[in-house]
């Protein structure tokens, strides 16, 4: 299943519901391609992550590795801003 920013226009209360359904699909073995800014969800559910900037893949790898130890400066900057906004 392809999901393109499935939570982007949702009320915060609904975000958890949608992510819960997607988590259940993942637990059931469903293959999903997800475009998201929900980094916690990606870290918990994804097997692999691709970081795309300007239509170009700048970094890819196992989700936990890429999200916890990004190598590319653009990925590092993005994650710093998203995970630690202040």
Secondary structure blueprint with pairings:
Blueprint: E1 2-4, H1 12-27, E2 33-35, H2 39-45, E3 48-53, E4 56-62, H3 63-68, H4 73-83
Parallel strand pairs: 1-2
Antiparallel strand pairs: 3-4
Note down, in words, how this protein is organized.
The chain is an alpha+beta fold and 86 residues long. The protein has one domain (2-83): P-loop containing nucleotide triphosphate hydrolases (Rossmann fold), CATH 3.40.50. It is 47% helix and 22% strand. It contains four helices and four strands; from the N terminus they run E-H-E-H-E-E-H-H. The strands form two sheets. A two-stranded parallel ribbon has the order 1-2. A two-stranded antiparallel ribbon has the order 3-4. A hairpin with a 2-residue loop joins strand 3 and strand 4 (56-62). The longest helix has 16 residues, at 12-27. It starts with a strand and ends with a helix. The mean pLDDT is 91.
């Amino acid at each position: 299943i392809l999901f393109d920013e499935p939570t982007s226009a949702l009320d915060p209360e609904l975000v958890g519901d949608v992510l819960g359904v997607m988590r259940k699909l993942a637990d059931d073995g469903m293959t999903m391609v997800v475009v998201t800014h929900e980094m916690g969800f990606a870290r918990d559910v994804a097997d692999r992550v691709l970081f795309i900037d300007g239509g170009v893949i700048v970094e890819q790898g196992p989700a936990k590795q890429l999200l916890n130890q990004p190598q590319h400066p653009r990925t590092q900057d993005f994650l710093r801003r998203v995970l630690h906004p202040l």
